[in-house]
TrEMBL record:
Keywords from the UniProt entry: Cytoplasmic vesicle, Exocytosis
The keyword Hydrolase appears for this protein: no
Oligomer status and interactors: Interacts with EXOC2, EXOC4 and EXOC5; may be part of the exocyst.
Main location: cytoplasm
Organism encoding this protein: Podargus strigoides
Biological-process GO terms, alphabetical: exocyst localization; exocytosis
Transport among keywords: no
Protein name (record): Exocyst complex component 3-like protein
Protein family (similarity comment): Belongs to the SEC6 family.
């Protein structure tokens, strides 16, 4: 047998540890000599404690041993009982096997019992089943008498009976019997349809009934709510859904309300899209919608449950129906008045206190969350259509105005004058008033429409100025054929210049933004072209009167002191008096251009090679005549208000210096100064002037022309050409005999 230490090595290890700990403790306690006196007491105390521990251990072990004994006894008893139960179960098994045949008889009894239960339930509902057709008839009478609540109560009772029977058949899988039941209760469908028809007729007349007979409308709503609760209950159970369920009568209620609103106002008759007819239609819609929404807000809301949100639904229905209705109208070919009415009504009137922001509707009615009545794309498209229509109207009106103006040019009386005595006509006032009115009308809708109409107005005004210019050209052609037609040709040209000036000063006032009232470049160019053409026609008229006089220049008769230039001054003075009928900027321009015309015609006459001075005396006479003529013309224009520094007649004085030069050898220097002052003069001009002197040798001529080649001139900025418009006649070729040499 093995020792206890071999069986329990942990005990040996524990004893060693205990001994070591005790030794360590004892050495620490009894290290000092004075502590050794208490060793006996310590030994006796430790002995007593060991005895107490051993006694407690013994009692604990004894109690454990007693518990183990009791447990063994209980296990033995349980084993005996289990053996007994196994014997009983075996006996019961054999007994069950012996009685299996008897259980088949119990199954038949259970089936008979189930049939008995079904028959019992059928017997219970037989009285109700027998009374079904009678109830159908009674319910139908109630419906005809508009006793809707009572009729609906009986209808619900019949449906409940039918649904219970169908539910039981469904649970038992008797689908063939369900068809029989449905055919037996087929009258329910007729009653349902009859009741629904009356309900929808009532809902369709709801706006009238809530004012006259709200009880009938409330009854219809109560029936609808009953059916909704039944639908909700059946859908929640989701075990068996009877035929015809869910009815969805609340959604049908909303649908009927919406159909009534749209049908009464938007689908009844064809809308008259002409201006007055459309205005009446929109006014009627505005009045009816406000009135009906007030009825819904004040009366109908109190007749339906709050969760119906009937006011919001009616408001949204009106909004959507109106939006579709306006789109339908806009598909027609509308005139500008109708387009304006629709834009104004949709963008201004609809949201104003006169309609959807009516004090009686606020704050409950709010269309801001429903979106715009017309989408931004539709508004943009409608605005473009409106601008096209306005453009066509403006074009027609302007054309008619131009035709009237053209006829007035041929009248036998002068144009009218303003209080300052300037010629004018009503054309600028008519045109600007028409354009400004269209721009102001567009401003009542949107800023974008106003800007579109403004841009269109400028384009049409520019085109009108082009047609007006063409009319002036046509009038000028008629005048060229017969200068007596029109009789007051010059006066009406002057009136056109004043009109053009009035248009130019009025264009800026058309711009909607006062801070950006500049005239567009293209329009200013059209105004300038118009002014230039009228001035050109006036100067051509002046030229026609001056040309017969200029043709007599130069000549010996003229040298001898004729009144030729005096006659020219009379013509110029006459035209200057006419020019005084235009406002100062144009008057100054006409005076300046007239002076340039006179100077160029005078110089052109001198360069036609009609005369060559044959002697020193003739050159002296020519210089004297040039001085007198130029001085007389200069004084005339100075007297008319044209400053000497602005006159081109100085070229005549400079030309005179070339002719009066006594020493031809100095001509190169004199010509150099002349071409420096007048850089547009050509060598042909100088050559002609040298011919006019009659004393210039070939060498001097060659020297002068060579000097001009060596000193090419460039036109400075702002220089007014005078010689470049004067053509010098080509030199005549010498006559040659055949087979001979040219002279």
């Amino acid at each position: 047998a093995s020792s206890p230490d071999e069986e329990w090595p942990e005990a040996e290890k524990a004893e060693k540890l205990a001994r070591g700990a005790a030794l360590k403790w004892a050495s620490g306690v009894f290290y000092r000599p004075e502590k050794l006196e208490g060793l006996g007491q310590y030994r006796s105390r430790e002995t007593q404690r060991n005895s107490s521990i051993q006694s407690r251990l013994k009692s604990t072990v004894q109690s454990y041993l007693e518990g183990v004994g009791v447990g063994l006894e209980q296990l033995q008893s349980a084993a005996q009982e289990v053996q007994s139960v196994c014997q009983d179960l075996g006996a019961a098994r054999w007994a069950l096997l012996d009685s299996a045949d008897r259980f088949q008889g119990l199954q038949q009894m259970r089936a008979l019992m189930a049939e008995h239960v079904q028959l019992a339930s059928v017997v219970q509902v037989l009285p109700q089943l027998f009374s079904v057709h009678e109830v159908f008839s009674h319910t139908l009478q109630l419906l005809r008498g508009q006793q809707l609540l009572e009729a609906h109560a009986e209808l619900m009772m019949m449906e409940h009976l039918r649904d219970d029977i169908l539910s039981q058949l469904h649970l038992r899988g008797l689908s063939s019997a369900q068809a029989t039941v449905l055919s037996y209760f087929s009258g329910l469908q007729v009653l349902n349809e009859s009741l629904a028809k009356q309900l929808w007729d009532i809902v369709g007349s709801s706006l009238r009934l809530v004012r006259e007979d709200p009880v009938l409308f409330v009854t219809a709503v109560r029936i609808i709510e009953r059916e909704e609760k039944i639908d909700d209950t059946l859908l929640l159970e989701a075990t068996f859904l009877p035929p015809g369920r869910p009815k969805g009568w609340r959604q049908k209620f909303y649908h009927i309300v919406q159909e009534t609103i749209t049908g009464d106002h938007f689908h009844a008759t064809r809308v008259d899209t002409e201006g007055p007819g459309l205005a009446r239609h929109l006014a009627a819609l505005q009045k009816d919608i406000v009135y009906e929404l007030r009825v819904v807000k004040d009366l109908m809301v109190q007749c339906v449950p709050p969760h119906y949100n009937i006011l919001s639904i009616c408001t949204a229905t009106y909004h959507q129906a109106l939006s579709s209705h306006l789109q339908d109208i806009l598909r027609e070919d509308l005139d500008k008045q109708a387009l304006f009415l629709l834009l104004e009504w949709a963008l201004r009137v609809y949201h104003s206190p006169e309609m959807m922001a009516h004090p009686d509707l606020l704050p409950e009615v709010d269309v801001s969350a429903l979106g715009p009545l017309m989408s931004p794309e539709l508004v943009e498209q409608t605005e473009r259509k409106y601008v096209v229509k306005v453009k066509a109207s403006v074009l027609e009106w302007m054309q008619r105005t131009l035709e009237v103006e053209f006829k007035e040019w041929f009248r036998e009386e002068e144009p009218e004058m303003d209080h300052q005595g300037f010629f004018q006509s009503a054309l600028p006032i008519i045109v600007m008033q028409m354009l400004n009115e269209n721009i102001q009308v567009a401003s009542l809708i949107t800023d974008s429409l106003q800007q579109k109409v403004y841009n269109m107005a400028l384009e049409e005004l520019e085109a009108f100025l082009g047609r007006l210019r063409e009319a002036l050209v046509q009038c000028g052609k008629e005048h060229q054929k017969d200068r007596t037609i029109p009789k007051y040709y010059v006066s009406y040209l002057l009136a056109m210049l004043n009109n053009n000036l009035a248009l130019s000063s009025s264009v800026s006032s058309l711009h909607p933004d006062a801070a950006r009232r500049e005239v567009p470049t293209s329009l200013q160019a059209a105004l300038d072209r118009m002014q230039k053409k009228a001035c050109q026609l006036l100067l051509e008229e002046l030229l026609l009167d001056l040309q017969p006089l200029c043709l007599q220049l130069p000549s010996h008769k003229w040298l001898s002191g004729s009144q030729l230039v005096s006659s020219m001054c009379e013509v110029i003075d006459k035209y200057a008096k006419d020019f005084s009928r235009v406002r100062k900027p144009i008057f100054t321009l006409l005076l300046t251009e007239s002076e340039l015309l006179v100077a160029s015609q005078y110089l052109r006459a001198l360069m036609q090679k009609k005369m060559v001075c044959k002697s020193k005396e003739e050159r002296g006479q020519l210089c004297h005549r040039l001085l007198q003529d130029a001085t007389q013309l200069r004084e005339l224009f100075c007297g008319l208000g044209l400053d000497q520094s602005q006159q081109s007649l100085e070229a005549v004085f400079a030309l005179r210096e070339l002719i009066c030069l006594k020493d031809p050898a100095l001509l190169s220097l004199e010509v150099l100064g002349f071409i420096t002052k007048y850089p547009d003069v050509s060598d042909e001009h100088i050559s002609t002037l040298l011919d006019l002197r009659g004393d210039v040798s070939r060498e001097v001529r060659h020297l002068v022309l060579e000097m001009m080649v060596q000193h090419p001139q460039v036109l400075p900025e702002g220089y007014r050409p005078i010689f470049s418009t004067i053509l010098v006649p080509a030199p005549q070729l010498p006559f040659c005999l055949r087979k001979g040499k040219c002279a």
